[in-house]
Amino acid sequence: MVPQVTSPLPRVVQLRVHLFFCFFCVALSWTCTSSGKTAPSFGGVVAIADGEPFTIVRGTSLNTATKGVTLAAGDMVETGAGAFLVVEMQGGDLLGIGPSTEVYFMQRTASDSPTLVVLKGWVKADIRGASKGPDVRVLGTHLGIQTHHAVVLLHVDEQSDSMFDEQGAGALLLRDEAATRTGTNTAPNQFFVREERADVISQPRPSHQFVENMPIAFRDPLPANAAAKLKKTTGLEFVRAVNYADVQQWLNMPRDWRAGFIGRFRRRLRDPAFFAAMDASMAQHPEWQPILHPPPPPEEELQPPARAAAH
Asked: In this structure, are 112 and 223 located in the same domain?
């Protein structure tokens, strides 16, 4: 015999439980149906890796890698002085990364434009324009390009950015303070140079200095289908959790590029050395101020003392 409930929950509690259950189901359904649509896909396989192993900051870990590794959105890659990488991207695009180069694969959701941020060094991109794929951005600290089909070379150093549109066309991108604006359309064989806070200089051909300093491997087309010759894929070789010096250049890059970094690197503040270095460089990333030094909670309003009951 089933015993009967003699003291049901109050109706307000039942209503709250029902609403919570409905909200939970809706949230779970939305997550299951949309997670695949919003996951970033900007990345690819390192098909060629000449020179010494390169480093990858993934999450909060510092790693080394060689050819056969898969790069993903959010990865920060740094190459050594003798390096040359060719990455076969999802969708068929090719990316060459030259020596002494730092790049960030920036795409937070699938709706974001895939953007290769180049902090320094040499990059060659062969954007082949997948029919349903979005435009790709290759962007230095002063200028870059957004294109669906082009071959471009970009060099970034402390003084200026230099870009050569070898084939195809796209929209010229210009960096101003903490924003990117769209300039004129590019054309094949155009060469652009821009220093900080200066106008763009356009030339009909690359400068002698640009060609002379260009990595030799970039003078030829990037080799396609090299990933098919890989005997095996490889993984990351964990080195350690990042220290401040490992990510200083990324934490100090333009603010709109470092969106999401608080959630990514916050747990590293448990390391006293990381905390101290962040604190000492607060002027470079002021958004961390309330994280390192949270403001005191607002004082509770003082309640007036209760009056004594009259006798």
From this structure: yes
Domain assignment of residue 104, yes or no: yes
- Cβ(140)–Cβ(109) under 8 Å? no
Q: Report the pLDDT averaged over residues 32-42.
A: 53
Question: Is 159 in the same domain as 104?
Answer: yes
CA dist 23 and 29 (Å) reads 10
Looking at the domain assignment, is residue 303 inside a domain?
Answer: no
Same domain, 219 and 134: yes
pTM higher than 0.70: yes
* Residue 294 covered by a domain: no
**pLDDT tens-digit series, residues 113-129:** 899 999 999 999 999 87
The span from the CA of 159 to the CA of 15, in Å, is 64
pLDDT in tens, 193-217: 999 888 999 999 999 999 999 999 9
Is there a single domain that holds both residue 197 and residue 267?
no
Does 94 share its domain with 223? Answer: yes
Q: Domains in the chain: how many in total?
A: 2
Q: Does residue 149 surpass a pLDDT of 60?
A: yes
**Alpha carbons 62 and 250: distance in angstroms, whole number:** 13
Distance CA 128, CA 185 (A): 18
34 phi/psi in degrees, rounded to 5 = -110, -15
160 and 266 in one domain? no
Identify the three-state secondary structure at position 61.
strand
Interacting residues of 243 by C-beta distance below 8 A, sequence separation 6+: 271, 273, 274, 277
Print the domain residue range for 255: 244-288
- Give the integer Cα–Cα distance in Å for 3 and 92: 66
DSSP string, 88-135: EETTS-EEEE-TT-EEEEE-SSTTSPPEEEEEEEEEEEEE---TTPPP
Quick one: tokens of 204? Answer: 């009909």
Structural domain contains residue 300: no
